[in-house]
Amino acid sequence: MEKELRLMKGNEAVAEAAIRAGVDGYFGYPITPQTEIIEYLMEANPAETTGMIVLQAESEVAAINMVYGGAACGKKVMTSSSSPGISLKQEGITYIAGAELPCLIVNVVRGGPGLGTIQPAQSDYFQATKGGGHGDYHLIVLAPASVQEMADFVDLSFELAFKYRNPVMMLSDGAIGQMMEKVYLSPQKERSKTVPEWATTGKPSTRERNIITSLDLDPNRQELFNRKLLAKYNEIREKEVRFEEFQCEDAEYLLVAYGTSARVCQKSVQLAREQGIKAGLLRPITLFPFPTKRIKELADNVKGMLSVEMSAGQMVEDVLLSVSGKVPVYHFGRMGGIVTTPEEVVESLKSNFIGG
Amino acid sequence: MTEEIIIAGFGGQGVLSMGKIIAYSGVMQDMEVSWMPSYGPEMRGGTANVIVIVSNDRISSPIIKRFDTAIILNQQSLDKFESSIKPGGILIYDGNGITRHPERKDITVYRVDAAEEASRMNSPKTFNTIVLGGYLKVKPIIKLENVIKGLKKSLPERYHNLIPMNEKALKRGEEIIREVQKAE
């Protein structure tokens, strides 16, 4: 079937894509700049078409625990929020990771810390990629850079979440959530009629009980479980790295940026090249797993790297680890809800590497 | 072809919807588009602006600081964005309520007194469509038929009876826009 062309906000695209992906349930609580997601779903009322449940919970904590319950039953469930709301959800998220359950969490990031601002930021990178809640765990983290990817990554997130029995986070930001672009939407998928064999759906006489828990009081068994998780994360690091390169072939200076910053940096690459500076861009699409290997390879070809993020410098630490001292690495970014301009990036490139 | 536009004015003047109509029209014409609003704790009477990019190529940054065209609907926006127009670019403004007129000599300035015209036509709500008509006269990047298609797409069906009135407003905008200054 042919894809349908629409002009939509990133937030609306996530919502429509969720219905079309055959998601069983969305549980959320409004917060700027992502409220259009729940608004769109409420208005679309998919309960009457696909049977998808859309529910506004009494709080973020309630919403994530509804996701925990739905996921334990083997259903395709999701939630969305923005930075302060995602912080509230962290307890639920670490339980879901500890119980090895699939789900999708969308974070449309705004400036922080605390309540911060409501404008776009990328200051939740550490929280998203290094755990976020307590305990040794990782989310799989996808970073969309367009409205199209906001839609496409819904399906991809659930595919990965069920494949690895692991929560997936889509780390977006206020700019991509609020802006409108063209988007090609996939045809409606039917909701799955079956659930995975591990789901808690009532014990038939033909199998042992399925237990969903993140608690094991025996440290020996718990360590075995930690090792199992580690093996899973290593497999994900091996197989699921995704990135995009933009004019890297002959680049002397490499920009590393994701999401909105990657869009800004595409323009910076053009501007820099107009001034005779051979810049290129590597855009990580997965932030966990991080494209460490590729960045390490590129360190052999370039004179330096600039990590561009709307934060005080978070992803730059992963870039530094990947490069391990081979070439200088700097960070540039605006904060507090201010989006970096393409010109500022070029200026930073010049002042860090070319002198003036 | 890439056209980078900022539209700025008071909230409630139809700034965001004018941008939406341009974006939808671009889609109808098979072009790439992006529409990036300034969003915030804004309200009626406050300022609102939107960046619209229409291009034949993939759009890189949806957020930019230099524009080919600025469509300016109040004094605050004129003060804020006059300096952001690229040399040789275009400034279109409504003279209503303007006390300090554009001063740059390296841009082409057009004036479209749409507020006055809309009240003369007895349809104040077509204000933004009159401005849009003026813009399309000086920058015919989009065909009128695609704007009508864009209007049909961006307006809920219950408002489709307003399309003929908007068509009239677009044409009126084309007629009343006038060049105030040519870029040096």
What can you tell me about this protein's structure?
The complex is a heterodimer of chains A (356) and B (184). Chain A has 356 residues and is of the alpha/beta class. Chain A has 2 domains: 201 residues, Rossmann fold, CATH 3.40.50.970; 111 residues, Rossmann fold (3-Layer(aba) Sandwich). Helices cover 40% and strands 19% of the residues of chain A. In chain A, helix 1 packs across helix 2 and helix 9 crosses helix 12. Chain A is globular. Chain B has a single domain, classed as Pyruvate-ferredoxin Oxidoreductase, domain 3. Chain B is 35% helix and 26% strand. The radius of gyration of chain B is 15 Å and the shape is globular. The mean pLDDT of chain B is 92. At the A-B interface, helix 7, strand 8 and helix 9 of A face helix 1 and strand 2 of B. Strand 8 of chain A pairs antiparallel with strand 2 of chain B.
Give a summary of the structure in a few sentences.
The complex is a heterodimer of chains A (356) and B (184). With 356 residues, chain A is α/β, with parallel strands linked by helices.
How many helices of chain A does DSSP assign?
A: 12
Strand order of the largest sheet of chain B: 2-3-1-4-5-6-7
Look at the structure and give the mean pLDDT of chain B: 92
Helix-strand string of chain A: EHEHEHEHEHEHEHEHEEHEEHEHEH
CATH homologous superfamily identity of the largest domain in chain A: Thiamin diphosphate (ThDP)-binding fold, Pyr/PP domains
Spatial extent as radius of gyration of chain A: 21 Å
